[in-house]
Amino acid sequence: MNNLTFKTLSLQTQTPKTLSHPLNIAVAGTGYVGLVSGVCMAHRGHHVTCVDIDVKKVEMMQQGISPIYEQDLEELMHLNRDRLTYTTDYESAYKKADAIFIGVGTPEQPDGSANLSYIATVARQIAETVEQDCLVVVKSTVPVGTNDKVEQFIKDLMPTDLENEALGKNKNIKVEVASNPEFLAQGTAVRDTLEAARIIIGTDSKTAEETLIMVYEPFGLPIVSVSRRSAEMIKYASNDFLALKISYMNDIANLCELVGADIQDVAKGMGFDNRIGSNFLNAGIGYGGSCFPKDTKALEYLAKQNGYELRTVKAAIDVNKDQKVLLYKKACQRLITFNGLKVAVLGLTFKPGTDDLREAPSLENVPLLLEQGADIYAYDPVGNNNFKNKFPEKGTESEGGHSKGSIKYVESVEEALQGANVCFIFTEWGEIKAVRPEEYKRLMRTPLVYDGRNIYGVDDMKESGVEYYSIGRK
Ligand SMILES: NC(=O)c1ccc[n+]([C@@H]2O[C@H](COP(=O)([O-])OP(=O)(O)OC[C@H]3O[C@@H](n4cnc5c(N)ncnc54)[C@H](O)[C@@H]3O)[C@@H](O)[C@H]2O)c1
Prior knowledge:
474 residues; six-stranded parallel beta sheet
């Protein structure tokens, strides 16, 4: 997208708010959380400076281009451009801010724990630059107790009154830290932020609570105020509960296949029960993305560190690991080899509506298929370029008569399916769901489909002459 072509907002709230006392807010990190939060806070009337260390990203944003794909985001950037600044100069952004939101990454480390080095860098930068009292708000997902450490770290690194005096700066600067975990989902991030089910505020300080209420009052959403540690735990407990729900349904789906039940009928029947709810009951090829995989592992790690074994979360992780390669294994049982076969891969991102590939099932399956010599034709409506960075296009190379596999990116589902011997569906994009069963029969050399998202009716595919394998259904 570019800044000249703006679609009509799909959101109902199109008008930016004008506040009588807007806050001066800085946001550290302009990823899915930081940028969306910053833009939405500007939409609600605050003045927001978005800071990132990635020069390319900042240059794009300065030109009105969103560096991430998220519905309505670029339109809101445009609509609120007078209240938004993008910069790599953190000093100018932090020194006079009323509140600094930290939205940098907390990726998984090899032992499963969260890497807090990005948070520490921002904390250090804040300590070295603030020139007035301010509230630091940790939006990133962090293990319980991190906010305490961030506050202490900032206090430890801030210049002494003597140093400030020598520099002609204010003395007695007070910096407090509050937790404000984020619950947006990629693909619906803007809507999730403007229409959040709740805002969690974690602080024991009245002043910090009041500042956060001033930030969020214009959103008109329910605010739940708790201690910092409870706020940190709410985030992990919520994410891990959702991951558990997915893994539970996948576990049941696998059993359904063995005993001749249909997971979709089972989910439908379960969903009517209000205690269970009908969301997150879809069986599939496992959860991915930047949150569930790392947040389950980080909570399991935190439990272990505290001498406790979190058995339910561990089970969710184990089920998910196997689920991601379930279809590949099924296909290996059906086919003698992938060597020299044209394999259509439909969907690369971890879910529809985002260009994010982190922990996507495609990332596990594509290397397996390439290893087996498959000639892959991949299609994703927005994820092709990001995937290409990880797996550059390459032609077939032969070694002792055995192909080492190839990958080519195509612009349509039809191109991917044309003449294919087998098809894998990894992401349920609308464009992919719109392909009718008979198209697989018409376009493919062998209409053999492995559907990781249960897009089609089993009978519809059968009637169209497609050999069809999905999750939890016969
Ligand atoms: N992505 C989601 O759906 C989601 C949802 C809820 C919570 N979270 C949590 O929010 C946090 C951020 O996630 P994300 O997906 O937005 O991350 P991301 O990787 O998309 O973005 C992080 C950004 O921070 C920037 N950055 C790194 N160091 C910096 C520094 N010192 N100063 C300024 N910018 C810096 C990076 O360049 C990058 O642009 C994580 O803790 C994540 O668990 C993510």
